[in-house]
Write a structure and sequence with these properties.
The structure holds 2 protein chains of 2 kinds. By secondary structure, chain A is an alpha+beta fold. In chain A, about 35% of the residues lie in helices and about 25% in strands. In chain A, a hairpin with a 6-residue loop joins strand 10 and strand 11. The longest helix of chain A is centred in the first third of the chain and has 30 residues.
Chain lengths: ~575, ~90
């Protein structure tokens, strides 16, 4: 009897324990079910952002100029760190950061703190080797410019959150960005993703950013930068601009901008933090300057079109100076009686102004605006200014003379390129552009850009007359150093006094030396603008800027395989 | 005897079901691992493309060609343009 009682007692206790477990089970599964279920889902499910890849920027031949790549960024989880000081010490050696700053970041309760963003792969490896569970890596997208300084100011650069801050990166930021996607992930107890997820996988695919193809040619860009740098170094100038453009289409083949002065490294968008804002300014469109004599062909074209002068008509420049209103303007060197052709070829101010007076300010103003001055060219780069052209109603008595010789007017290098393109292509003003194509990586159609003519400025007949005059500049005038060997060319020299900022008068020591022209003159393929800011020593455009034109024209035309067209170059006629 | 068979079938069915689910989960892990490998390879590929781009930059090529290989730009005298003359028409 006793044994039986004990057995019943044990069974009762076991039954009770079992009942308790069942009750607990019922409690959890039934009563608290929804609350606990929701909590589990929150731990299990996670919305993960799928970053859209930023589009690549290519040159016209498909070479990469700007590419995004995933690199590791280092972050920490302070709430889980027991000894921030020790960790900070070890990290400071790897990340090259102040250990006390790191320690401050790692102390505290936060769940996430950035330690170093977008680090080199070697640093990332060393962080991994630390083996700390609270210091982790996370991929972020970083922009690389593999050609380093090449076309730096044109490309621009990105901020730390991949937003375009300058140049094409900024002007086409929306196009390059794409749209981020997301996916709802389920994770198991180990934090690994379970696939497929819950009730059907929920996600939205990221839309990748579009790629951009520029009109820029990497090789011609390199030639322009190299030759401009050489001129800046030998003349110890403050800066300069060189533009190479296709006069038939308006495509910008090269745009070289140097603003940091000789001796300073040119802007490298891989390291924008090493440069000051002035050094990535795209001066080709953002700044204007007084062009000086390179503006004279505008007067020449207008006068010839309106038939107030004939190219061989004689103009008396022997006085060496001319009085206009209350001002006396002098010639740079003595001239006698010149044909109008030689007035331009020898760059006589007196001759130019005499013809300008014959033309009259109304007609002159009409042609100045027809050539695009006083307006933006519309090129697709940020920050373009329209230059400075006083409305003709506000012209003083002297204005017509000053403007004819390129003073009292502000122009941008891009406007000069567009204006000379009109002279080179038979008389039509066209719109310069830098982006040739947008390629849609998401399967869409993309966009191809084509040349956009703006309007006719002068007839082809007048254009041919101007062409002959500008060829004379190089054959026998002030631009002889611009003559590219093997090719014919046409253009104009300019040596403009800068305005002294303190006195407001024209400086006697600071000049802008320029040369603008096109080649080959018989069938122009390239317009080249060269502007050198404040050369020391020799300041004439014909000596400082013209040689840059020659070098860029020779090398670029050879690269483009344009056959030499100058008589006297060696040519072989071969029968088939 | 009957009850035995039924119980056996039920248990077998349950085991198959659970086994199937486990297999799915294992495949899911494999897929994730392969996805990660694919991403890593894509990343490496992009890095290498950037390196190629950087190594072929015109400035670098010119430097190597002129300084290390001793090449020069051909002077104009060394360039001869050959133009084809059109063949005479057959009458």
């Amino acid at each position: 009897m006793e044994r039986r009682g004990r057995i019943i007692a044990v069974l009762l206790i076991m039954g009770l324990a079992f009942a308790l477990v069942v009750m607990r089970l019922v409690f959890l599964q039934v009563v608290e079910r929804s609350k606990l279920s929701a909590r589990a889902e929150r731990q299990q499910e996670q919305v993960v952002t799928l970053e859209a890849k930023r589009g690549t920027i290519f040159d016209r031949m498909g070479r990469e100029l700007a590419v995004s790549v995933d690199v590791d960024s280092v972050y920490g989880i302070p709430s889980k760190i027991d000894d921030p000081r020790e960790l900070a010490q070890r990290l400071s050696r790897i990340l090259r950061q102040d250990p006390r700053k790191l320690e401050r970041k790692l102390a505290g309760d936060k769940h996430f703190v950035w330690l170093s963003r977008k680090v080199d792969p070697t640093k990332a490896e060393k962080v991994k080797e630390l083996g700390s569970a609270e210091i982790r890596l996370r991929p972020e997208s970083r922009r690389f410019y593999p050609k380093k300084e090449l076309a730096g100011p044109v490309l621009g650069f990105l901020g730390i959150d991949n937003q375009g801050l300058e140049g094409i990166e900024r002007a086409y930021d929306q196009t390059l960005r794409g749209v981020n996607g997301w996916v709802l992930e389920e994770k198991d107890a180990m934090g690994r993703m379970v696939f497929p997820g819950g009730p059907g996988l929920q996600f939205r695919m990221p839309k990748p950013g579009s790629d951009i193809v520029l009109t820029i040619d990497e090789v011609i860009q390199h030639i322009a930068e190299k030759e401009l740098d050489a001129a800046l170094a030998s003349s110890r100038a403050k800066g300069g601009v060189c533009i190479v453009m296709n006069p038939q289409s308006g495509e910008v083949l090269a745009l070289s901008v140097r603003t940091s002065g000789h001796g300073h490294p040119p802007f490298n968008p891989n390291e924008p933090q090493h440069f000051k804002p002035g050094e990535w300014r795209n001066r080709a469109v953002t700044d204007s300057f007084e062009p000086g004599s390179i503006f004279k062909p505008v007067l020449a074209a207008a006068a010839l079109e309106e038939r107030v002068i004939h190219p061989l008509e004689r103009v008396d420049c022997s006085a060496g100076k001319i009085q206009i209103h209350d001002r006396v303007i002098k010639d740079a060197h003595e001239n006698g009686v010149l044909t109008f052709t030689d007035v331009i070829a020898e760059s006589s101010n007196v001759g130019t102004i005499k013809v300008a007076l014959r033309l009259g300010k109304d007609r002159f103003y009409k042609y100045i605006t027809a050539f695009g001055f006083g307006r933006k060219t519309g090129v697709d780069m940020p920050g373009e200014i329209p230059g400075l052209l006083r409305d003709q109603r506000l012209w003083s008595g002297v204005s017509i003379g000053e403007i004819a010789i390129g003073q009292e007017i502000g122009v941008t290098p891009m406007q000069m390129a567009a204006a000379y393109s009109a002279l080179a292509n038979g008389g039509t003003l066209i719109k310069p552009y830098v982006v040739a194509e947008i390629i849609d990586r998401g399967g869409g159609a993309g966009t191809k850009f084509s040349p956009q003519p703006i309007g006719r400025v002068i007839t082809e007949e007048t254009c041919a007359k101007v062409n002959k005059i500008l060829r004379r500049v190089i054959e026998a005038g002030t631009g002889q150093k611009a003559h590219p060997s093997g090719y014919t060319a046409a253009g104009k020299t300019g040596t403009a006094q800068k305005v002294d900022q303190r006195t407001g008068n024209y400086s006697k020591r600071e000049y802008v030396s320029s040369f603008v022209g096109y080649a080959p003159a018989t069938s122009p393929k390239l317009v080249i603008v060269v502007m050198v800011d404040t050369p020391e020593g020799v300041i004439w455009g014909g000596s400082v800027a013209a040689p840059v034109f020659k070098a860029v024209a020779e090398q670029s035309l050879a690269y483009m395989q344009v056959p030499p067209d100058d008589e006297g170059s060696r040519m072989l006629l071969v029968a088939r | 005897m009957r009850r035995f068979v039924v119980a056996f079938l039920v248990i077998a069915g349950l085991l198959l079901y659970v086994g199937g689910k486990v297999k799915i989960m294992r495949l899911g892990y494999q897929i994730e691992a392969l996805e990660k490998e694919k991403q890593d390879l894509e990343r490496a590929n992009r890095s290498l493309r950037i390196e190629v781009s950087s190594l072929t930059s015109p400035a670098r090529i010119e430097e190597i060609a002129t300084k290390k290989l001793g090449m020069i730009r051909p002077p104009k005298e060394a360039v001869v343009v050959v133009k084809r003359k059109a063949p005479p028409r057959q009458e």
